[in-house]
Amino acid sequence: MDTTTQPITDTKATLALNPLESEAVYIFREVVAQFDRPVLLFSGGKDSITLVRLAQKAFFPAKIPFPLLHIDTGHNFPETIAFRDKLVKELGLELIVRNVQDAIDEGRVIEETGKYASRNMLQTTTLLDALEEFKFDAAIGGARRDEEKARAKERIFSVRDDFGQWDEKNQRPELFNFLNGNIDHGQNVRVFPISNWTELDVWSYIASEKIEIPSIYFAHQRKTFLRDGMLWSAQDDVVFRAEDEEVVEHTVRFRTVGDMSCTAAVLSTADTIEKVVGEIRTSTISERGARIDDKRSEAAMEKRKQQGYF
Amino acid sequence: MDVLKIATAGSVDDGKSTLIGRLLYDTKSLTTDKLEAIEKKSKANGFDYLDFSLATDGLVAEREQGITIDVAHIYFSTAKKSYIIADTPGHVEYTRNMVTGASTSQASIILVDARKGVVEQTYRHFFINDLLRVEDIVVAVNKMDLVDYNEEAFNKIVSDFGALTQKQQFKAQRITFVPISALKGDNVVNASTEMPWYDGETLLEHLEQLNPSQVEEVGARFPVQTVIRPKQDQYHDFRGYAGKVSGGALAVGDAVTVLPSGRNSVIKDILFYNASFTKVDAGNSCTITLEDDVNVSRGDILVKSAQAPSLTKELQATVCWMDNNALVPGTKYLVQQGTAQILGKVKSINSVVHTDFSGVDATDKLVLNDIGKVTIQLSKQVLNDQFLDNKQTGSFILIDTQSHATAGVGFIGS
Fold it and tell me: What residue stretches are annotated with the Tr-type G domain (chain B) (predicted)?
């Protein structure tokens, strides 16, 4: 259902929001006020789904005043794509999809080969092309500072040059709640409304707001194989599996949902949102511990961001 | 759950990273994979201890040089609270980053090396926290293990600080001293057995019971971010003003004035998402509708008519300069106060302030990391809210009209 048709109810109470929610809504409104062509980068993962809810809240009773952009690696979990299409339809949102496969077909990027081949890095080219194609000047993303140490250094309004590059040593100071979105023509800004949220904050918010998320976040049976201490999905043809890597069915869930070729499953029986929150609360492994692309080197994320990764 | 934002300040090698690492480690906030990475890297670097700076220095250049260049945000939580620590650089040349970190924090941890006592950098850190109106300061006297946990060394630092607090402007600030050893873990999360003479709280115990924002801002202020006008039949005549309340509270029925135009109206409704409220407190985002169809747009500020501030076209302010190009009289900048961006010209630079509280010197320019007294002329009227009365509307940033950089931050007040 398109939520903007809902009537406004009278609660007769004092408004006192979660400070992180108030901050995120403030950031969304600054984006719409300061930029001509904002876009929300949507992957179908929990963080970007949370962004959609926050954007709804920021502009209600008006509709979300910008489109969603999905950079489709072609290696997405089918559950995520089905969820994406349902969400967009229900909320009456505009969705733009750009495919990494097109860039591969055009020879603009070269697909990696071998055991660890991933399309995650290849996304950057398609993302930058899409930003240029639609003249987007602000790209809103669900990155959080607690995810990774290079992300911990990022501003909420992060200026990128003509080439989409992040100059990590020359960032604009962000003082109080001033967000300076003044840029030159051709530059763009990456905006991170949930910068200050932790993984647990996101899950708790999803639970308290009763936000729907793709089924792969909950425990389910899946054909998997073990590599480097991590469980990979053997259900689809996306992840290269050597003959000696044996397929075993396990009860698993995904803690983070990115490209299938770089996202591992975790053993879990958490089949409700409350159980997921409980699991995250007591987990001794970080969220990105299941992202193989971060383990390529000490500075993997920083390097990707310099090149324009979100 | 409550979120407490903290900034750290300390000179190089005072142990900021070690303290943050210790906080994360002792609260079991470091996940196994991150801890393993630190262990592996520490060993590879030839250290026989865990180098916690590896957890916070996120950039290649930082790890290469072994120093913190830019603010990192570190997160951990306890059963009581969520914490966000802005780990700010200690070097003199990164004063602007220290100001950046402290500006969004409700509390600051100032580290002092027990062996060195109060040094020039301590003065600077305290000066910035005073200037920025940080409500709670914890002076963590670190490396107590290196002075044999001596009570006198600690007391000397406490009494030296007394001289500083006499000169501070922000009198509502609360200051607490805790003797610690970040390396050994004394009094950070767990109470030390080495200092029986200290009967106060550990650093974390102290943070757990802090309850900032007890300082009332003078007057409710509502800078309008954007106007919400749904183009649908159901909300055909809806015209809502979206913003976040800075200071005070607003309620349905309050008489309000739109500044700078000076038009008056009454609050008809306070909305957030699909619910309507009778009152909204400071710090909350909401959408406000008014009884009258007055002209309100981004950059305007709604205030309670009974608490309306005076307007001015000439600001007296303390400015912290953050740009490589010096601030000189005659230059034009965009001045942003609340959500309004107004063209302004630097009329005069009156003095540069010594951050050791020793006074001011006459000058005609401010260079990177200088703090000085400045007079700015504006093309339009702005609120003359003093920073000591309202943190949000009493501050502004200066945006370079060519590079668009945030070149400086100003605090209104003479």
Answer: 1-215
